[in-house]
Design goal:
Elements: H1 5-12, H2 18-52, E1 83-86, E2 98-103, E3 108-109, H3 121-137, E4 142-145, E5 154-160, E6 167-173, E7 179-187, E8 189-190, E9 193-194, H4 197-211, E10 214-217, H5 237-246, H6 248-251, E11 269-271
Parallel strand pairs: 2-4, 2-5, 3-5, 5-7
Antiparallel strand pairs: 1-10, 1-11, 6-7, 8-9
The protein binds zinc ion (ZN).
């Protein structure tokens, strides 16, 4: 397939045989163009197929938000209804109406904890915007940035390990089943493609939904949908209602006084109309 230019030079120097060599070379060239045309087409087909099956293509793979609360069986009994599941409630950390968060400066790379490159400023902004939207939409709740990870209720890290999981949230509970601490991992890409800042913002928003005690939505087009590419990038009234229900001891108390006892949620889902 490879006809180098040195062959052409050689044929020009060959006096009597030059005509024959030129014809021979033209045949070789024709073959070369046919081969390279075919190779180019093949490459184009492979490229299109690859793009079509990645996060930026129309036929996207089932990119999961994987987290501790996800379970295939969790939607049993909700068929025919659009619901967001309610998981858990925060404990006394919420009693002042404030949750503190810390965003790790370094990218977490597989096998190397905290030794990765600095997280890009656009990524930090995207995660911060996600927190701010929750902050502004949920009344009686303020998110405040902590000075160190040790005094943060929520630790958020950006991960770069080529995993197919867009995000992971791990909540920790006390002996009463109340959340005491949350760890969130947001991937900065999947399948070799980097997520855009708006995708990272959406993933962070979904994960903070789990942080605030939500499970998944059993329908597409919702922020809490299990698949990133079938979800929504904005927080709807249904998720806000679900957060109030999850932490009802705090949110549903009268403005004069909260419910007397910190308690786990009294409902397992919120119906979204
Ligand atoms: Zn999730």
């Amino acid at each position: 397939m490879a006809v180098s230019s040195s062959d052409d030079k050689c044929s020009n120097e060959k006096g009597d045989d030059s005509q024959k060599d030129i014809i021979y070379n033209n045949n070789k060239k024709r073959k070369y163009y046919t081969y390279s045309g075919f190779a180019f087409m093949l490459l184009a087909v492979i490229s299109i197929a690859y793009l079509a099956t990645t996060v930026h293509g129309p036929f996207q793979p089932p990119l999961l938000f994987h987290d501790s609360v996800y379970n295939e069986m969790e939607f049993d009994g909700y068929s025919g209804r659009d619901v967001v599941l309610v998981c858990c409630s925060w404990g006394e950390e919420l009693a002042d109406g404030e949750l503190t968060y810390f965003i790790g400066e370094r990218i977490i790379t597989q096998g190397r904890n905290g030794l990765g490159e600095n997280v890009e400023s656009g990524t930090v902004e995207a995660v911060t915007k996600a927190i701010q939207e929750w902050d502004s939409k949920v009344e009686r709740l303020t998110f405040t940035e902590a000075t160190s990870r040790r005094n943060a209720d929520i630790e958020i890290y950006i991960r770069d390990d080529g995993n197919e999981r867009a995000g992971i949230t791990k909540n920790y509970y006390d002996s009463h089943g109340l959340i005491t601490k949350s760890y969130v991992m947001v991937s900065n890409g999947a399948f070799g493609f980097g997520f855009s800042d708006s995708q990272i913002e959406q993933i962070a928003k979904h994960e903070i939904g789990h942080v605030l005690g939500l499970g998944h939505a059993n329908f597409d087009g919702n922020l809490m949908a299990i698949h990133v590419n079938r979800g929504s990038g904005s927080i709807s009234d249904c998720e806000i209602e679900a957060v109030y229900k999850a932490n009802e001891w705090w949110f549903e108390g009268s403005s004069e006084g909260r419910l007397r006892y910190i308690q786990t949620p009294s409902t397992e889902h919120i119906e979204c109309s």
